[in-house]
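User: Predict the structure for this protein chain, please.
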Amino acid sequence: MMLVVQKYGGSSLATPKHIQNAAQRISALKKSGSDVVVVASAMGHTTDHLLKLARKTVKVPPSREVDMLLTAGERISMSLLSMALQDLGIPAISFTGSQSGIITTNDHTEAKIIDIRPHRILEELGQGKVVIIAGFQGVSEKKEITTLGRGGSDTTAVALAAVLKADRCEILTDVDGLFSADPRVVPAAKILTQVDYDQALEMASLGAKMQARSIELAKKFQVNVQISSSRTESSSGTLVQSQKVDPKTYIEQIKVSAVATKDGFHLFHSKTSLPAILEILVNANLPLRFLSFDGEKVTFLTEKEKVPLTRSFFEKQNLTYEEIENVSTVSVIGDGLIHSNRLSQRVIEFLKQENLECLLISSHSASLSFVVRSTGKTILANFIHQHFLN
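Assistant: Here is the predicted structure, written as structure tokens:
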């Protein structure tokens, strides 16, 4: 019998009606003869609401208690979805991450999966039930409840698909798949029917609707991932898998495939030593991707959620710093971009022409990112898409 792992995002479970619609879709899949494991995200903006509640209560919420708070969101949606399926006559049972056997590191709010012991999942599948699992969470070897970071339900789904050797892993959300750009930012964006793991990883890392860690897992365990809309059956979405490339076509060729945008950053400048800044980055669990150091001054980006923690580390070390709010990244995704000096030159000339400041540039073999104030994001993304993709 075919085994399918489906993940429903928060927008797909935002209201009781959305949950009923998801249950109808799962019911149809189950009745077609497949075993089904469903990973549920928290309803709508529940996670954001809970985070705001925590920050209204205390300035910097302790990470352990944040995990205890946030995991409530997925438990709500998983149980409601199980109820909706049972109401349709489909046997179903819901499990938390810990009940599912998802074992993680003890890194609160950013835990990594160590192991999955799916004994209970397999038992219930054997009894013909749809198994619904709370995404985004697990339990550490110290028996602490943990969360996997933003978008962690994607990682839950792909990890389960790998361990259970599922035939398909479907990520169902409110969009039709991965696009050449965010259609809300670039109206001319087109859907990408297929992408390889490396391209999808760059897109996810730089703003596309998929958690980067889930793509890393998919590549590692060769899990084919279908990203599509939960609201329609007609869209085939985007298939993420290994792709064979004709070497005659792509040898040493620079190829642009997509533009990714990401908001919600703050940019920090500080005249200090690199070890001091690295201590901040390690303690705040911040990535090194958007960081420059000229021997005296460090410049780096911080996601909005981690700004209070970043500021507190500066203050504890009595370090002076400058901060720019409302910063975005506009990233070109493709092949051979680390050698694309002409592309960089054209973008910088365009920014100068539009009186927009480039705050930082980050170069990678598969991407080239420009950090700008958020007010310039849309005009830059549309320029890149028009001149390098069409």
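Residues 258 and 267 are 24 Å apart (CA to CA).
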